[in-house]
Amino acid sequence: MSALVSIITPSFNSAKFIAETIQSVQHQTHQNWEMIIVDDGSFDETEHIVRSIIEKDKRIQFYKLTQNSGPAVARNNGIEKASGKYMTFIDADDIWFPTFIENSITTIDETGIPFVFSSYKRANEQLEFVYSDFIVPHKVSYSDILKSNSISCLTAFVEIQKLGKKYMPLIRKRQDMGLWLNYLKVVPFAHGIQETQAIYRIRENSLSRKKSDLIKYQWQFYRNVEKLNIFQSLYYMSHWMYRGFMKYRN
């Protein structure tokens, strides 16, 4: 039997999109997976929609947190429950292309690198491609991610049988970046798959798109999470600001 893949999905008031996200998982060419959905205190129809799907597909698990605690807590809860050889993430409004899992595993097998990630398309809520495709680098190191986080939760794929389980820092933003850096302290680099493998849906009210306090959060991440000194933080912040502007210039 093919290897089990654990898929971690946090959700919060995701009723509008989550069925489409689950469908993209169900359509994978690699079918041996478990989808662990951790709901972060939704008050819409998310639970009803997911449970109705679970009735027909027992590979999907649903857990609900008693109170809204943020995506890091929800994802860490899912990581703790993961039992697969591989671990990957998809948010409750994003979409994978059918070969995403298959191509990720094949790349790990061919390169011997247990941490891979892929390029993706970027769309608005109506799945109109309002930005150019985000094409990832061929490889990224710890230092590269401090300059610009080119690994999206949407396509990160880790062989936890080799690298073990690591968890996200309990912060409101940049928690995924913290997890990638934890893995990149163990392996010299992650391998980037150039072919687009997914669609990232950019929400108007998305936490990651509110720019007013992004600089503050990034600085706090360097200083409080990664414990960089002031000069290192200034160095990486300058790179991050420039590359962040270039990422969304078109």
Summarize the structure in words.
This protein has 9 helices and 9 strands. It has helices spanning 18-26, 46-54, 71-81, 100-111, 142-147, 160-163, 175-184, 214-225, 230-247; strands spanning 5-11, 33-39, 60-64, 86-89, 95-96, 115-123, 139-140, 157-159, 190-201. Strands 1, 2, 3, 4, 5, 6, 7, 8 and 9 form a 9-stranded mixed β-sheet that branches. Helix 8 (214-225) packs antiparallel against helix 9. The radius of gyration is 17 Å and the shape is globular. The relative contact order is 0.15.
Q: Quick gist of this model?
A:
This protein is an alpha/beta fold and 250 residues long. Helices cover 36% and strands 20% of the residues. It has helices at residues 18-26, 46-54, 71-81, 100-111, 142-147, 160-163, 175-184, 214-225, 230-247, and strands spanning 5-11, 33-39, 60-64, 86-89, 95-96, 115-123, 139-140, 157-159, 190-201.
What oligomeric state is this? single chain
Q: How many domains comprise the coordinates?
A: 1
**Uncertain segments of ≥5 residues (pLDDT<50)?**
none
* Total of DSSP H or I helical runs spanning 4+ residues: 9
Q: What percent of the residues sit in helical stretches (DSSP H or I)? A: 25-40%
User: Compute the gyration radius: what is it?
Assistant: 17 Å
**CATH fold name:** Spore Coat Polysaccharide Biosynthesis Protein SpsA, Chain A
CATH homology group: Spore Coat Polysaccharide Biosynthesis Protein SpsA, Chain A
Q: Please give the CATH architecture.
A: Alpha-Beta Complex
Q: What CATH first level would be assigned? A: Alpha Beta
Instruction: Give me the strand/helix succession.
Output: EHEHEHEEHEEHEHHEHH
Instruction: Report the span from N to C terminus.
Output: 43 Å
Shape: globular
**Mean of pLDDT:** 93
